[in-house]
Amino acid sequence: MKLRIKGNSLRLRVSRSDVAQLMQAGCVEETIRFAPEPAAKLTYRLEHAATPREISIHYSVQNIRVLLSTEAAKRWADGDEVGIYGHVDTGTASLELLVEKDYACIDGGGADNADAFPNPKAGIVC
Question: What's the pTM value of the predicted model, to 2 decimals?
Answer without folding.
Answer: 0.82
